[in-house]
Specification:
- Helices cover 39% and strands 26% of the residues.
- The protein has a single domain, classed as P-loop containing nucleotide triphosphate hydrolases (Rossmann fold), CATH 3.40.50.
- The protein is α/β, with parallel strands linked by helices.
- Helix 4 packs across helix 5, helix 4 packs parallel to helix 6 and helix 6 runs parallel beside helix 7.
Length: 277
Amino acid sequence: MNSEETLEESPLLEVNDLVVTYQAQRGSLMKRTEYVHAVKGVSFKVQKGTTMGLVGESGSGKSTIGKAILRLAPMGGGSIHYDGQEISTLSDAAFMPYRKQIQTIFQDPYASMNPRLTIASIVAEPLLVHAPEMSKEERTNRVADLLEKVGLPADSMNRYPHQFSGGQRQRICIARALSSSPEFIICDECVSALDVSVQAQIVNLLQDIQDELGITYLFIAHDLAVVEHICDDALVMELGEIVEQGPIDELYRSPQHPYTQRLLNAVPRMPTILGAG
């Protein structure tokens, strides 16, 4: 798909003037309520089949945006449209079909899985909610197919999370995210807890899945070397605001904002490692 065709299409995700504010209690005796403005009027669009990077230091608000899209953070203003439909004002029941289409992969794969469940139960859990008509045999076959798609043997399904390495656990989380056949996946620092060589494997796996299934990603990260490898465009966040955005090649070739320049100067670039098969 060329850039002109992409620009003419309606975005899959459109965020307009998003505000997220948290209340915090301060003081030990005389309690007072203060407001923390985590996201301040952020707007952006993500085209179908592309990967949008969302980068910044810890505390910049990038993960909060992902949580707001998933309705896990309180919106204080603005709107979120998915495939032309405003989803930020929907009731929980009306939003349920979008939970099938919008999935997430979290930073810590072990913390995001129930250690008491087998891998089969973990990967099949979204199917129980979004595809209740499936038989047990159909769910088992679906889990086996997904595990093989992410590079794990089908017989892994009878094991437990603690029996896998960090990279293998993240592959399991990717399989779980894919189980409901989503269109859009939020990757929230999904490789930052992994070794560099394992990061490369997971990034390449995500790209292969996108090429095969046409999935759209919002890739949240602080590592600009990873973002450069996987993203088409990127948004740079500082203190809850977008300070720069554009095609990833342009941001790397000619960063305009001093904050973007500092991020690029601070992070080692590893294109050779990340480009490995």
